[in-house]
């Protein structure tokens, strides 16, 4: 595997009320193509800031972040927006679906921004919904779908531009335990198909399903351990 994400000495500071708050303090991290990684840590640990950096939703105060060969510090806002749309598929806790449009239309949305022709959009959106097991619900609106089905729609939307990275922010946080199991199973299937997946979560069960856990504390990487290493050392997620 080769590096998809390379983060070196990353610092992110914010000015709040005249005081400098350091959310990330010199983070160095590499994630290879095809990995399934969980980023974990308590509230205020820096994991959400790290997610924003990985998703190109924010830029560092200092240090370097390269994704798929692109150094984000050298990109304009428009270039960052294009990179997000083409390279990263986002999955959110609350699904972020447009309520008055069908599942199919929600999945088509990223391709509209990418300038994909209408017929190709429809074809790819239908294929993506079939891939997540929702071929029979593509004309339903979000309020006609269960929470798990809505999350499947959002995963199909994340997949539809064939991104190099699927970035999921607490993707099971709004779901019950049985539905959580279904969604985690889907992520495992996508990983087995070669997708690179990074999940930001505080849930131990989600972390256990990943192949690697990167744990943040106080703006730094506290530990970084593969599932094989966890088994050998007897190290637990919690």
UniProtKB/TrEMBL annotation:
Phylogenetic lineage: Bacteria, Bacillati, Bacillota, Bacilli, Bacillales
Protein keywords: ATP-binding, Nucleotide-binding, Transport
Pfam families reported for this sequence: ABC_tran (PF00005)
Keyword flag Chloroplast: no
Organism: Alicyclobacillus fodiniaquatilis
Domain of life: Bacteria
The keyword ATP-binding is annotated on this UniProt entry: yes
Name of the protein described by the UniProt record: ABC transporter ATP-binding protein
Residue span(s) of domain ABC transporter: 5-237
Any one Gene Ontology molecular-function term assigned to this protein's record: ATP binding
InterPro entries in alphabetical order: AAA+_ATPase, ABC_transporter-like_ATP-bd, ABC_transporter-like_CS, ABC_transpr_LolD-like, MacB-like_ATP-bd, P-loop_NTPase
């Amino acid at each position: 595997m080769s590096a998809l994400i390379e983060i070196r000495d990353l610092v992110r500071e914010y000015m709040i009320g005249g005081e400098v708050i350091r959310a990330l303090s010199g983070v160095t991290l590499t994630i290879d193509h095809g990995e399934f990684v969980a980023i974990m840590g308590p509230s205020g640990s820096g994991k959400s800031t790290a997610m924003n950096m990985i998703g190109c939703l924010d830029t560092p105060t200092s240090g370097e972040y390269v994704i798929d060969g692109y150094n984000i510090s050298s990109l304009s806002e428009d270039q960052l927006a294009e990179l997000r749309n083409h390279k990263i598929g986002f999955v959110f806790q609350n699904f972020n679906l447009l309520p008055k449009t069908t599942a199919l239309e929600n999945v088509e949305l990223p391709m509209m921004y990418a300038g994909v022709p209408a017929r190709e959009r429809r074809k790819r959106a239908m294929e993506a919904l079939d891939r997540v097991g929702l071929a029979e619900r593509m004309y339903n609106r979000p309020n006609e779908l269960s929470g798990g089905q809505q999350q499947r729609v959002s995963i199909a939307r994340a997949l539809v531009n064939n991104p190099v990275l699927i970035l999921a922010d607490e993707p099971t946080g709004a779901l019950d335990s049985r539905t959580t199991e279904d969604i985690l199973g889907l992520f495992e299937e996508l990983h087995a198909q070669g997708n690179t997946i990074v999940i930001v979560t505080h849930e131990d069960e989600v972390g256990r399903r990943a192949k690697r856990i990167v744990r943040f504390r106080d703006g730094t990487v506290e530990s970084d351990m593969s599932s094989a290493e966890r088994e050998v050392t007897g190290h637990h997620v919690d």
